[in-house]
Design goal:
structural constituent of ribosome; Helix Hairpins; Ribosomal_protein_uL29; mainly alpha; elongated; Ribosomal_uL29_sf
Amino acid sequence: MSVGTKGLETVELDTFEDERLVDELKKAKEELFNLRFQSATGQLESHGRLRAVKRDIARIYTVIRERELGIRATPAPVEVPAKAEKKTKKAKAADEAADAAETKEA
């Protein structure tokens, strides 16, 4: 995700964990510093980029503060499912036979 784009919305920021938000904030502040430096030396080509990065920083701060106040929910950690073991045809047939035997007993 690049900082200062129209794609950066609060809906997208809601999916980020706190650590990632802090990382994005650091990147945005670093980019703002570089843009200000370019502006001071006359090398800045896109002045609208300054405004976009400032707004992104404000969005990130808003999401962080709303999470602190309990207004906005923190996303639940995503659990990565364990890899399923590959079964041979014989093992699958044995499992199916065992399941069939259980259903007959019941």
